């Protein structure tokens, strides 16, 4: 239920969305007519973003676009960045420790200093065993004092030492500009690290075509407001101070007539371990709380941790409170939608909900909780320790942003999803997944559709002397178009079911291809360009409502996700097209003109040398089609009527496609070789086995020392090694093996006799 509601969405019926409150699809309602206040939990910026992040933020980008561009809502989209967190503090201190150790080792490379070596070993052990932060900081300071120049200049950036240390996966374990400097402190060092990864995350989102939020909130910019927010909760009687920290009083909240805890997870109060998951690694082990389910709002800072002033002493915000304070500051007392990954449902969103309702003393703060489904790698959660942590950058080395988006569109946003990596042992290669085959196939189908439409519209333009009347072929296509629009609308109403949307549009594309083939076969039946254009514009519109090629009003066909330039399809590089708005006509046309000029030069050279044979000309034409044009993003398809259809792709995308095909070919070849080797091995084993006479088969090999006595003629076992008789059931099994060996050995003897008979003496 909501405090006030409206289902107005620009005239369209509102969709039903899976609401975590009810665990059912609920008709969407807004607090204000046609306006959605939407908050999404953003990243904790202590490491590179991975494919789980990609799925989550692409999912919510799709939901946001559909609600805005299809259903017509005005959306205010707010996302936070958690840049104060125990994970960031720990990572910053560990990176600093690694940095100081690295500089100490390099400075003392030629010296034999046992005390320094021992300190380095102690720090390495402290980092490896996750020793208490106070202990780690003390050891690092001791090393710094012993090993480094008295003024600490060796820790400065740009002192002649290498700035970066790389890990096995190519990522940087520390960076001089982030972790270096003689004046480094955790108060500024944690923020440098957070800013480094925030910048990387936002660039990843841009490469994936995820729209920027309308408002980005950072915890580091909200510490004062968070303190005031906590004071409001204390004033209402739902929080208490304990030894410089502040905790939310779950019992007081639950006992209040106006409030209810565990709205998202009914069994929340039965799961203490999960409840403590959001408390952070740096919270004191000894309890300062009134009861186990109370959660921290303000943490007292200890040595090695950054701090901010508060009425309770120096400290920092807890994890849950940041979202309540920042969301409320931008969206107000009531919120339409709060979203995030399903792993945030409890305890994060449960506690976020409770503390916000406690602050305002209201029954319900959020109308809808939308949670994106888990992404698993081979059934397991991604983690660096399991070596299944696949970053967005790794995935974009192999696939385009559009292909990754199709991958996620083919799955319901609220359902769990599985990825199965195909591991490549070659360094520098991107990640590949089995599930991507379907996504690439879908993208190719739509790409070919748009190329066919554009080619058809280039060949058949509107003219007064050309028939426009709809014949049975056009009416059939029109009926398919109507059915497609109806199905797509119903799918979007049903929890924004993108997988079903894609299926309906693929069926539409199939109908179009049938229509186009029929028209091309009939010389007396001209294509109806207006109908074809309408179909193609609708497909473009729906795909773009899901963020496939940028904005919903983009031109017909695929356009670049980042720049909106036709033909460039978001291949995951920082600059994906030469044709930016500031480029001159010369710069845009240069690669194509170079190819054309080079082709002409070769033809002229052949003509002057009297080598202009048909085969030579065709050879140059093939080279232009297969080698030259693909490097500049142009693909030519030869048609039966002798005319070629040109298709425009992103520079580099055809090369990616070629590389994927080569890798797939190589995988198939290796698999074939493996099968052949296995077959050969089995045949050799069978050949060796055939040489064994059945009378001795139970006395040698794996059967040796198993039996005690044998039949004198057949060699069949009579007793076991311990003297006990072979049972009837065992004898029956052994007889089958014996008969099979008799046949195998006879066949071997026969082949030997045949070979001997062929030998001429």
> Which range does the strand content fall in?
5-15%
N- to C-terminal distance = 101 Å
Structural class: alpha/beta
The total count of strands amounts to 21
Number of helices: 21
Describe this protein's structure:
A hairpin with a 5-residue loop joins strand 18 (634-638) and strand 19. The protein has a 5-stranded parallel β-sheet with strand order 7-4-3-12-13, with helices on both faces. The chain has a 4-stranded antiparallel β-sheet with strand order 8-9-10-11. Strands 1-2 form a two-stranded antiparallel ribbon. The model is unreliable at 1-6, 158-163, 166-172 and 561-582 (pLDDT under 50). The chain is built from 21 helices and 21 strands. The relative contact order is 0.08. It is globular, with a radius of gyration of 35 Å. It has 761 residues and is of the alpha/beta class. Helix 2 (86-107) packs parallel to helix 4 and helix 14 (436-459) runs antiparallel to helix 17 (529-545).
């Amino acid at each position: 239920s909501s405090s006030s509601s409206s289902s107005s969405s620009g005239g369209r019926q509102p969709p039903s969305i899976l609401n975590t409150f009810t665990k059912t699809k609920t008709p969407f309602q807004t607090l204000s007519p046609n306006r959605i206040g939407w908050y999404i939990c953003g990243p904790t910026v202590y490491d590179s973003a991975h494919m789980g992040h990609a799925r989550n933020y692409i999912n919510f980008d799709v939901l946001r676009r559909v609600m805005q561009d299809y259903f017509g809502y005005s959306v205010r989209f707010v996302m936070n960045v958690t840049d104060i967190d125990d994970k960031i503090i720990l990572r910053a201190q560990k990176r600093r420790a690694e940095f100081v150790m690295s500089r100490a080792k390099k400075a003392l490379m030629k010296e034999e200093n046992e005390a320094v070596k021992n300190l380095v070993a102690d720090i390495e052990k402290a980092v490896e065993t996750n020793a208490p932060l106070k202990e780690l900081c003390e050891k690092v300071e001791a090393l710094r004092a012993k090993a480094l120049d008295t003024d600490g200049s060796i820790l400065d950036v740009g002192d002649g030492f290498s700035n970066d240390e790389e890990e096995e996966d190519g990522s940087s374990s520390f960076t001089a500009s982030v972790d270096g400097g003689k004046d480094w402190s955790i108060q500024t060092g944690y923020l440098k690290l957070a800013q480094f990864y925030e910048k990387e995350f936002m660039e990843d989102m841009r490469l994936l075509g995820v729209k920027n939020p309308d408002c980005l909130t950072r915890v580091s910019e909200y510490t004062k407001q968070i303190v005031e927010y906590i004071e409001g909760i204390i004033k209402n009687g739902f929080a208490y101070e304990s030894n410089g920290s502040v905790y939310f009083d779950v019992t007081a909240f639950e006992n209040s007539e106006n409030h209810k805890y565990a709205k998202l997870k009914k069994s929340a109060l039965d799961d203490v371990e999960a409840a403590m998951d959001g408390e952070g690694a740096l919270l004191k082990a000894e309890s300062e709380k009134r009861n186990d389910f109370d959660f921290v709002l303000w943490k007292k800072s200890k040595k090695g941790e950054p701090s901010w002033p508060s009425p309770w002493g120096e400290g920092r915000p807890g994890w849950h409170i940041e979202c309540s304070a920042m969301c409320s500051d931008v969206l107000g007392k009531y919120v339409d939608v709060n979203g995030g990954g399903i792993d945030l449902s409890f305890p994060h969103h449960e506690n976020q909900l409770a503390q916000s309702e406690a602050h305002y003393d209201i029954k319900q703060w959020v109308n809808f909780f939308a949670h994106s489904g888990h992404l698993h790698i081979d059934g397991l959660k991604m983690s660096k320790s399991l070596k299944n942590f696949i970053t967005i950058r790794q995935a974009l080395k192999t696939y385009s942003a559009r292909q990754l988006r199709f991958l996620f569109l083919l799955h319901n946003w609220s359902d769990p999803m599985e990825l199965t990596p195909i591991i490549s042992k070659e360094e520098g290669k991107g990640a590949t997944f089995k599930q991507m085959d379907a996504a690439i196939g879908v993208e190719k189908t739509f790409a070919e559709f748009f190329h066919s439409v554009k080619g058809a519209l280039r060949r058949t333009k509107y003219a007064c002397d050309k028939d426009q009347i709809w014949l049975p072929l056009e009416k059939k296509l029109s009926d398919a178009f109507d059915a497609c629009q109806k199905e797509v609308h119903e799918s979007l109403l049903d929890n924004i079911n993108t997988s079903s949307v894609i299926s309906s549009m693929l069926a539409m594309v199939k109908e179009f291809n049938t229509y186009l083939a029929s028209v091309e076969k009939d010389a007396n039946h001209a294509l109806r360009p207006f109908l074809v254009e309408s179909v193609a514009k609708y497909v473009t519109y729906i795909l773009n409502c899901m963020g496939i090629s940028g904005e919903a009003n983009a031109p017909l066909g695929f356009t670049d996700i980042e720049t909106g330039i036709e033909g460039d399809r978001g291949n995951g590089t920082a600059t994906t097209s030469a044709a930016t708005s500031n480029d001159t006509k010369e710069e845009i046309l240069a690669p194509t003109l170079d190819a054309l000029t080079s082709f002409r030069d070769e033809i002229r050279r052949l003509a002057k040398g009297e080598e202009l044979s048909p085969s030579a000309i065709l050879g140059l034409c093939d080279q232009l089609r297969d080698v030259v044009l693909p490097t500049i993003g142009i693909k030519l398809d030869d048609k039966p009527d002798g005319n070629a259809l040109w298709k425009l792709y992103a520079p580099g995308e055809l090369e990616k496609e070629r590389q994927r095909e080569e890798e797939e070919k190589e995988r198939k070849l290796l698999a074939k070789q493996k099968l052949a080797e296995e077959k050969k091995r089995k045949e050799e084993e069978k050949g060796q086995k055939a040489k064994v006479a059945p009378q001795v088969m139970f006395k040698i090999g794996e059967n040796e020392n198993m039996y005690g006595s044998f039949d004198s003629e057949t060699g069949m076992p009579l007793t076991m090694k311990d003297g006990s008789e072979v049972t009837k059931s065992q004898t029956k099994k052994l007889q089958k093996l014996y008969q099979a060996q008799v046949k195998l050995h006879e066949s071997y003897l026969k082949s030997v006799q045949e070979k001997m008979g062929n030998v001429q003496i």
